[in-house]
Each structure stands twice: as structure tokens, then as C-alpha cells.
Predict the 3D structure of the following.
Amino acid sequence: MPLLVRPSNDDDLFEIVAGRRRYHAALIVGDEQRAQGGDVEPVPCAIMEAGDDAAALEASLIENIARLDPDEVTQWETFARMVKKGRTIGDIGLTFGLPDLTVRRILALGNLLPRIRDLYRAEAIDTRTVRLLTLATKAQQRDWLKLYDSEDSTAPMAAQLKAWLFGADISTKAALFPLDAYKGRIVADLFGENGSFADADRFWQAQNAAIAARIDAYKADGWTDVELLEPGHHFHSYEHEKTPKAKGGKVFVTVRHNGEVEFHEGWLSGKEARQARALAGKSATTEADRTAAQADRPETTSALQRYVDLHRHAAVRAVLLDHPGAALRLMVAHAIAGSILWSVRLANQRSGSVATDESVETSAAETIFDARRREALALLRFSSEAPTVAGGHGRDRNLADIFARLVPLEDAQVLSILAVVMGETLDVGSMIIELLGVWLKPDMASLWRADDAFFDGLRDRKVVNAMLRGVAGKKVSDANLTERVKAQKAIIRDCLTGQNDRKPVANWVPKWLAFPPASYVGRPFATLDRFKAIASLAKGLPAPIMASASSGEPLAAEPAFAIAAE
């Protein structure tokens, strides 16, 4: 096992970083071998780069761990120095063979007051107790130390400590709102110095409104973004980089179960900070560039985006049925863009999610389309059980056969078949869906309904709260700002169905499914990007003419899809 050495200030010498005991043992053995007339083999050395302090620290700790595991406080001191030198949690874990969770728990000791760390080092506090204390505020830690030092009281440990920290008792010190304006009951102690809120629900209504007001104030003050963490989650500075407001820094808000709220101003996650530096290297100095650097996370997950794409696709091809002229032009466009070996493939309407597939298959738009598909199959004298018109259903369905069946049909009948074939071969999640949507204007409120698959796909707290604001209004949204995502989605459902004394909201369609689409919180998503790419093409297009399937004459009544939906 080689010694680890590096050049010292004296260019002719090296200093030992790890292996001093091995070195002195080798000197003793060497002296014994010389005394007996034997040869002394040189000691192998691994030379480290000069000034590599973090690597030297790692090598020294590796040797210490191999000899005797240090206590966690010593590990924290070492890990903290490594973080300051640019090492990540993953780097530390790989170096010492520790899981990331263990490294995080050790680094969390930095949240403790120095005296509590000293008590833990001296084994006066057990591990479970110290883990809970890392979640406590500095004020709570000082109160705990008072109990620990008191001769008349006993400081809570382990399970009792958890109840002491996160019990239902909410101190008036946690309130962000003025107490004189609070309508609920406050219970004061004997001396009147401290108090607690008797009604937790009423406290959280007022506290949530105050948090929402503070967030609005930060945004008005020019902060790029304000991120509200999940209640009970903690802000770890070692996972973030200090970044001023002028360089795109954000405000992170933490809310504890005991009502305490902290605002961490001027931080970016490690990933966001790296993106900001990359843009800065490209002379990205505008506000738009700084916003783009932080908008890396789309509004929709891949599963939810697939849900949106499929429903938009279903709606466009449903309304396309009443515009065969548009379908004809699409077919011609396909012919121009393709080649003499034109290969027609069916649109892939599978998402990988049973719930999403069932949602699309049972939608009003898909029901309308299936009925018109069966009409087209009958005109072509194909089996009514055939799943599609295009794509081939037997060897006899070659080009000459299909052509022979189309010849005796009227132009309007051929156009109705063309509309079905075009719908079956229209690409899901494409820019042409966006162009057709803004041109033909499908009535999404009659073709789509909010279902379990849609709500199951909603995961983002900020998006759900913005959606709640659009459905129920700002007052309801602010009052439920820190509620779990599940609870906020339940309120949206109640508003759409009129349950639990909520005023029903009729014909609601999420912004993602509207034509044109819109964003809830200003973050990008695929649908909006596709619409922006074709927005200029949609301007100036003449109004589409809707024709009947039998005569080809313009329809004066309501579209067939609207009647079917009713």
C-alpha cells in the first residue's frame, strides 16, 4: 500500500499526506535489515498534485476510516470542508462508499448549535434525538438546551422530542400576520409573554394568506421566482449556491408544521446555478436569458404531456370530420411533402398508461370519430369491425381494389372517407395539430371532460395552485397555498362538480388543452412550443367551410359533433 505524498514548499522534498505510520514502521524495519546486512527496498509512493487540498483531505479520511470509524461530528467537519471546496454530496458518497442519505444526514449536523454537536460528540445525546434536532429551528434548539440544563425539567428525547417539536401547539411567534387583526382565539401563558393559537385551521388560513402576500411582494420587487417548498421540507444550503437577485437568484420559502415560515433569499439550486453560469459565458445578460436559464423544468410530466397531446389530437380530428375540404388539402400536403414511395402509417394512440388510453378511448371526441369511421367502412364495403380505414386489413385491399370501390362513390362520400383516413394518419403531438386547432376551433368543452387520468397526472404544486386560482379564484387559492397537492386537486374537482358547497364551474377546459394553449406559471411545455412555431402561419387564414357528408353543401345547422356530444 503506497504512501500518498505531494511536493512541499521545498522543491527537493515531499510531504506525507497519508501513511505516516507506515513510513515510520518502514524506517524501523529498514534499520533492522541494515543491521543484519540485508538490502532495504524503497517504499512505493503515489504523488498527488500540489495544492490538491480536497484530495488530500479525502486520502487522510480514507486512512482514518480504514483504521477506526470517526464519530459523525468529525465526519461532518470533514464533509463540510469538502463542500466548501466544491465537492457534491454524490462525490463525497462515492469517495467514502456511503449512500447519499447518510452523507445528507451527516451534513445536516451543520443545522445544529455548536453545543448540541459537542453533546452528541460526547455521546450525551443519542442518534435519534440528534436527527430530530437537526430539523428544529435555532430558537427551538435554544429552548431545548434550557430544558437540558434545567434541574427542574427534563429535555425531551427521541419520540417525546418529535411530539415536542411538531405537536399541534402553534406559537403566536410564528404568525406572519398582525395578531390584533386575527379573529380566532389566542391562549396566553400565565405571564402573557407567549401564546398559542387555539384553532389551527383558522391560523393556517390567515398564515397562508400572509405567505401569499409575501410571495406577491417578492415578485413585485423583481425577484425572478419564489419557490414554496412542500410543508415540512427543509432548505439545505449545501445543495444550493448563493446567488444575488440581479443574477437570477430565487427566494425559497420553507413552512414548518409548527407554523414557522422562513424566507431564504438569493439562492439557486446547483443545476440552476450551472445553467446560469453557462448562459453568462455566452454573454446572456438579458432578463429573458436569465428567465430561460431557470425554466429548465417543463410544466407537464412526460405522461401528462402525452395525455394532453392525445386529447388535443382526438379533438382536432373530430372537428376535422366536418371540414373535408381541409382534409383534402392535408392529403395534398402529405403528397407534396412525401415521395413516390408514399408510406401511410396510422397515428400511435397509445401512451403506455392504461388510464390515459381509456380516457381517450371513452372521450366524446373519440366516440364521434368512431361513428364516422364505421360509415366510411360501410361505403368501402369493409367489415364494420375493422379497427381502421387506413393501414390495410387484408391482402385483397390493394391499391387497385380500393380505387375500384371509390370510383362509383359521390365526391362528398369520397371526401368523408378522406377525412377519416386523414384523421387516422394525423401525427399526435405535431405542429399541424396546433395549426388545425387554431383554424378549425374545436369546442373542447363539449369534447373533453376532466377525469381521473387528468388529475392523476397533476403533480406540480405551483401549477396546481395556479390552476386552482383560475377555477376557484385568488382568495381560495391563497387560503390553500400550503395545502398538499392532493387537497388542492380535490377542491378543483369540487368546483367542477359543484360538490361540498362549491359553486359549479361549467365548461372548464385547462389552458393546456385550449386552442391556442397557454401556460399556468410561465414555464415551457411542448404544446406551447409547437403553437409558437406555427402562430404566424395561423394569422390571415380564411374561415374554413364546413360541408355535409352527403351533398357537399355548407351546413347551416350546428356541427354534427356538437349534436352528438349533447
User: Anything to note?
Assistant: The radius of gyration is 34 Å. Residues 368 and 561 are 6 Å apart (CA to CA).
